[in-house]
Amino acid sequence: MAISTRTQFETIIGIEVHAQLRTSSKMFCPCPTAPAEGQADEPNTRVCPVCMGMPGTLPVINRRAVELVMLTGLALNCRVEIDAVRFERKNYFYPDLPKGYQISQYALPLTSNGRLVVPVPAEGGEVTVGITRAHLEEDTARMQHAGRGYSVVDFNRAGVPLMEIVTEPDIRSPAQARAYGETLRELLRAIGASNADMEAGSMRIEGNVSLRPVGSTTFGTKVEVKNLNSFRSLERALEYEVARHAEALERGEPLVQETRGWDEENGRTIVQRSKEEANDYRYFPEPDLPPLRPSEAWVAELRAQVPELPAQRRLRYVNELGLSEYDAGVLTADAALAAYFDAVVEAGIAPKPAANWVTGEFSRLLNQRAADGLRADAVALGPGGLARLIGEIDAGRVSGTNAKTVLATAFETGEDPVAIVEREGLGQVSDGDAIGAEIEAVLAEFPSQVADYRSGKQQLFGFLVGQVMKRMAGRADARLVNQELRRRLDA
Ligand code: ADP
Ligand code: ZN
Ligand code: MG
What we know:
Helix content is 38%, strand content 20%. The protein contains 15 helices and 14 strands.
């Protein structure tokens, strides 16, 4: 019988992300990055001599794009370069690159040396991913292969501000890689740096993967995987590569450093190009742009703008406030909703009931108005109002059911919930004496039902509760009615 000699391998992954920045104009010219509202996106309508790469034109740096990269770097705990950030030319020939070079950053990126803490629910923990750099560059035009030997080019995308974020090879599994992508997307959206939409192409992701025997300290040969249009594809492609590498290494076959594309339909990767075919980009400093020297004051101003990020907030909700992962996830998926919840808690409501109301009835009303784009921060009823309503429930002055009715009105009008309770007569009677008196009246009115209940007909209890509630016009505290009625019947 053969003894298994299978080697244990460790997976090493590093991720490169390109994200289009949310600016209104392009990186080096005034062309808009998106069509005007209500306008169709006709090809080659948002172009000018600069982004078409005409000789003799000069680029001008988009200040907002610089700011968004710095903001991202700060959110990723990066160091921001303030001495002299250089732009460099990355030279290569391709029809989607009108100038014959891309203006990018190479030796001195705007931000570097950061980290992102990534929750990995699939593995029940978190991983800290080192951020090598986040730098600024420009997007290329969009090629469309029209088939039958010709292609068309749309230059609307040429020169759109693009940020590249590169990680250290710190990721140890395809599930971690996916979680990194999702956490980064959340971060980019939370700080408003990018729409980070994989399907729309405003976020693109590439995975680098290699295997090494457990215990080894040197890296194995890496493969870069492209053509990933979802986080699921990223995870699947990396899983495929991990299995392929392990098999090759088991058989003692060397791996080739190459770029492979993910074939979604067939669930496999295919060679795109090997290292030998790699371009020599002949980087050199961009002579048409001055070095960039962001002032310390500017950096400080941006640092103050970095909000609490969704992943941090989720951890805080679970670890400090004791919310479930589920509630924490629902709240932090929407920054405005999370802020609303925070304010309800700040107003003195315990986190759990606050989360129940905000993710429950409040969110339901909000979703009904989703078509109007209503966000939690624009709802007429502020968090203080909701807190007052929850306080009334806690105090037993309004029932949960009536509170929903009150909330539906206050949500639209912003009226004080306590005033609505009074006006509509929706208050709850929690007065033991008042309830006791009604119970006695019911017991006197239905002596035969009472006798039947006492001789074992349990189902009559519901009938008697109903009679008490009816006498009190539905305003009695149901819990108290149940308790008192039971006590008197069983006496
Ligand atoms: P290249 O020069 O091929 O672009 P880089 O050194 O710039 O390679 O790294 C690109 C990405 O690949 C980074 O995210 C990095 O962390 C990752 N990476 C580098 N070496 C490895 C490796 N051996 N295995 C997996 N990922 C790696
Ligand atoms: Zn232009
Ligand atoms: Mg690289």
